[in-house]
């Protein structure tokens, strides 16, 4: 007798047509192309740290049937898009995961702590529950000009994490040093800088994200923003790929791309040798979501004396740090952190510095270095490293 | 203007204090109020009276006199055995209407707050809540309370000119209790109590005292980071001495030195204790988010560059394993002196 | 059985860290401060919505304040509340707790009463924490304050609350109708439901009452109805941490800290005093 014959009426799952239609609309029918091959499940980095892999295939199947996801693995996804890179059908898997997450929001079935993140964006214009009036404290000694479309070449979009997280504030200050050294005329929006909304997008709250995007795009339009340089690849990705109907007036660039241009144009002179062996961790949101692997490397190669070596998983094969997909606001237990593995990969290259270009990556990787008591490796951002190559540095 | 049930002209120049008791012991906030009120009463030459309600608590009257009261109005009744706002508000109102004191002070405890709020409306008088200081002017007999608002950002002096009693509440720990002097003499007046079961609508189903489990309720927290290793026993000792609880940053939790329920931070528990002593934690942002609401932060770390020092009121660059034992010894010595 | 009627008292407050005292006029300057819904009121609303999920009924938001409160209160509609009653009149201004609780009580009476009145435990501006008790007294109904959890028994018409107090907890029952005040951060307020959001902007969702609508006794309203007066206002040094460096031997530092802690933490349980 087959297993299906043994199912009683209570055990049979009933598919809700309305839900199915809703999911199709939410995801633009993204899951339909999936033919359940399972490559996604095989390649998901959760398989490196968990005994039981996250079944991405099951999530896609649930999406095809219109079933709200009942299990926790929906919230494990870091949106690293490793699965998308290898999917033979080109299914935008991350988009489907976001759609399933929104169904969970509608059912008020989200992990604890996430509603508070959205309220924080709503009341404080940042996902870190920090006072909005403290957004520019990091720059209090820097005398940054307020963005003026008539005078400035670019808007420097600092972002919430670089504004408030002490560690990442150092990256922001390095970016400012580099822009000043290159003679770039830039401004910032200060306390009025609107949140890009990536937290809302990645925890799956699509309508709230769209509301944020409308408001933020309006601010950029009103301020006459044309070129916008971001510190975080997450902000960059959101502006480039999820504001598409709204960003006709502005062009987002990641700061590593901008630095590469400044170096090529000769505006940024990197003359002081930095005799270090470094390896570069590609942030998922640059390497995979936006296929940007060259610009950061151009900048690094322009630093005199620097030796750049590659890790086992480099460029578009990069191993996620574990911070994306809203996981910066969710706990990942020790022993299951991707960044622990990544840091070991870095050690294997014999580099003394693990350099990256994303606020979330920096926080996760540095945390792994500390928790594994690694002395031989420092974690830095490209901006911090490049600033060391400026003439006149102590 | 709504008039209070009795006017300034009818007042008796006396300071009354709600003496709160629990399980046969006077609450420390009541002793603290007695000390402060004693100073105020001496300055203006008024009487200090304690209102003591409960059942079989007569011996506490002598203790309250020893701590500074001139007189105790004692209300004993089985229906006053456990605090209910129904019973206590009724009796307190009768007592106050009988004697018409100028000032009535209560401690900000859950029960004190309940009583003060209802009583003030019943008496149609003003209430100066959560005062950080009290002043009584001899000539005018006006009580001014210093109050902070907006998260402590603004200080105001509040008083009432035309309403009596002048009610004010004060948090535990604002004033210092004095020493008991059992040679002090005072009157004890027994108040007749008119209470029936029908007047009490609050039913206490269950009451468990003293089993603290929730970090967010702890008035003091001692937090251990990577720098304390597994020595949470030492932190527990310190926490007990200050009536608090222990917490941790993520690394000790990861190492299994302490339960995950005690992890403080963005992905753990967010706390707002009165005082947080942060030991051996560098001050990573994720952790700081969980403790930044503390009134006072004391940080101990051997690294002078540790980011935690930016978030602390008192910074100690030192060895946690030298400073904390010294602090435990110092606190023990203080206690031995106070309770000799 | 008639529908469960619940009222949630909510207030819009300035963000505490942005409020200033004008040094020249000595008046509160909240004009430049961003506003938000008083955070504990969101916890109060969440409990009301949970009871509505469980038992059905209606959740009304009640607020006393100027017209600019309205868009903030509509956020409550987007989370699931049914209606807003805004008590708005110049005459209500300057009220202390006696006048405030009186006015709110008049509003509840004009609404036809309620089974449960929820309040946040205190507000971040005045922080007196006295509104719940005062309101219960005006309405002559029972109260359970500082609850970290609450439920009702419709059959017996009682409210049951859990209070975390005295280093432990207490489970208390009072008959309905009752006032329930909610401990800050005792639950996680649900985010707005975007299926409800469009309806939250409808005109018909808000009722504004002035003093004439309430038929309240004028002497009880606003500043004239407030026994307490503010005689002085100053900016307190706050916000920024002191960052005071304590130096010396461990013993010297310990002495200084012990003095500090003795003042901050006087309520030490008996058992721990024994060495």
Could you please describe the fold and organization of this structure?
The complex is a heterotrimer of chains A (394), B (340) and C (275). Chain A is built from 18 helices and 8 strands. With 394 residues, chain A is an alpha/beta fold. Chain A has 3 domains: 96 residues, Alpha-helical ferredoxin (Fumarate Reductase Iron-sulfur Protein, Chain B, domain 2), CATH 1.10.1060.10; 148 residues, 3-Layer(aba) Sandwich (Rossmann fold), CATH 3.40.50; 123 residues, Rossmann fold. In chain A, the strands form 2 sheets. Chain A has a 4-stranded parallel sheet. In chain A, strands 6-5-7-8 form a 4-stranded parallel sheet, with helices on both faces. In chain A, helix 1 packs across helix 6, helix 4 packs across helix 6 and helix 16 crosses helix 17. The longest helix of chain A is centred in the middle third of the chain and has 17 residues. Chain A is globular and about 70 Å long. The N and C termini of chain A lie far apart (78 Å). Chain B starts with 11 loop residues before the first strand and ends with a helix. In chain B, 28% of the residues lie in helices and 28% in strands. With 340 residues, chain B is of the alpha/beta class. In chain B, helix 3 crosses helix 4. Chain B is elongated, with a radius of gyration of 23 Å. The longest helix of chain B is centred in the last third of the chain and has 19 residues. Chain B has 2 domains: 192 residues, 3-Layer(aba) Sandwich (Rossmann fold), CATH 3.40.50; 124 residues, TPP-binding domain (Rossmann fold), CATH 3.40.50. Chain C has 275 residues and is of the alpha/beta class. Chain C has one domain: Rossmann fold, CATH 3.40.50. Helices cover 28% and strands 28% of the residues of chain C. Chain C is built from 8 helices and 15 strands. In chain C, the strands form 3 sheets. Chain C has a 9-stranded mixed sheet with strand order 11-10-9-12-8-1-6-7-13, with helices on both faces. A two-stranded antiparallel sheet of chain C has the order 2-5. A two-stranded antiparallel sheet of chain C has the order 3-4. In chain C, helix 3 packs across helix 4. Chains in contact: A-B, A-C, B-C. At the A-C interface, helix 7 of A face loops of C. Strand 17 of chain B pairs parallel with strand 15 of chain C, so a sheet runs across the interface.
